Amino acid sequence: MKKISLLGSTGSIGTQTLDVVSNYREAFQIEGLAAGSNTDLLLKQAREFKPKKVSVATKELADRIREDLPAGTQLYYGTEGLIEIAAGTEAEMVVTAVMGSMGLPSTLAAIEAGKTIGLANKETLITAGHLVTKRAEAKGVKLLPIDSEHSAIFQCLNGERRKDIDVITLTASGGSFRDLNRDQLKQVTVEDALKHPNWSMGAKITIDSATMVNKGLEVMEAHWLFGLPYEQIQVLLHPESIVHSFIQFKDTSIIAQLGNPDMRVPIQYALTYPERWPSSSPKLSLAEAGKLHFREMDFDRFPCLRLAYECGKMGGTAPAVFNAANETAVARFLNREISFLQIENIIEEVLNRHDNKPEPSLEVIEESDRLARELASRL
Ligand code: NDP
Ligand code: MG
Predict the structure, then answer these.
(1) pTM higher than the cut 0.90
(2) 85 and which of 6, 34, 218, 243 could share a cystine (Cβ 3.0–4.6 Å)?
(3) How big is the CA angle at 253 (ends 251 and 258), to the nearest 5 degrees?
(4) Which residues line ligand 1 (CB under 6 A)?
């Protein structure tokens, strides 16, 4: 039995992780579940998977569900609660599927406790990649990618030497507005933005796909996960989302990973790694797909991707500030306070006013994150 704790159990990745676990009840045991405010779903999950510990976002929410939890389930809340689920159970693996840079303290705590990380929460690596990878290495902790592109690269690297890589290419669907020009983007609504053509995901990452911020974050995530300079990381538009990413090696050979767009596949690979178990996901038929398309990325159409590369190369606090400004701007867009194109204006303006600090400590990162959010909330 592999013991697992799950941070963000009520979200898109969280519920799909529990789908995978449900298919292999005899192989996995859920030790802890952490949610935000969807207490109805958390209670349902607690009854079904019988974790030893659960956590919710606030004390008020905890008080509301205390009576309804199965006997013997311990209840926690807040940041400490999240850390308890990450580091205070017998789980050998922690799946990090909370949204945003709030995932950082709990992921670091799980690493300190020696847990294998199933990493969905990419913002952790973007804000503090140098600290997270250093601690993981010191602790001998594996970071197993769940993000589909990174899972693809990770799979393509099986049996290969990193020094033989020429370039890795992350594919991008282009998001909800890939066929609109910049003029047409002025009119788009929240509802339009939430309609992703290929993937069903949480709201924030769906907006990030439309702005191409998600791909920018993924470029930084790849930099830290695979230890590659930005010059060796490329992005290519691929509207079908079937080639999840690929590596070109120095001998010109390309190795790619393909599949239907279904997050349960990379989630299951992280849970069963290095084994591959049968999946309930529908099989990909290349005959049915018929044609696959690829297009050069247009950095003028997607300026956030250019900004992300710049921040990544700059390092220091710039990536954390990029991420914090984006999180705040996306929340404001979802709240209908700002237009879609203002998201990129806000990110750019916050970065322009930021004084980058190299090799930041956790405290410096947290302070830069806080200041960036404050500025982004009033621009
Ligand atoms: P969702 O928004 O669907 O889920 C977020 C989860 O975080 C929910 O369980 C939510 O709980 C929980 N949460 C929110 N606030 C708190 C809090 N204060 N304390 C504890 N938990 C909290 O996000 P996704 O599943 O889409 O994404 C999760 C991560 O995975 C992100 O980092 C994303 O970039 C990454 N990712 C997602 C992919 C996808 O297909 N969705 C693909 C690749 C990466 P509640 O709902 O109960 O409030
Ligand atoms: Mg992805």
Answers:
(1) yes
(2) 34
(3) 155
(4) 8-14, 34-38, 57, 82, 97-99, 102, 120-123, 147, 199, 201-202, 204-205, 263
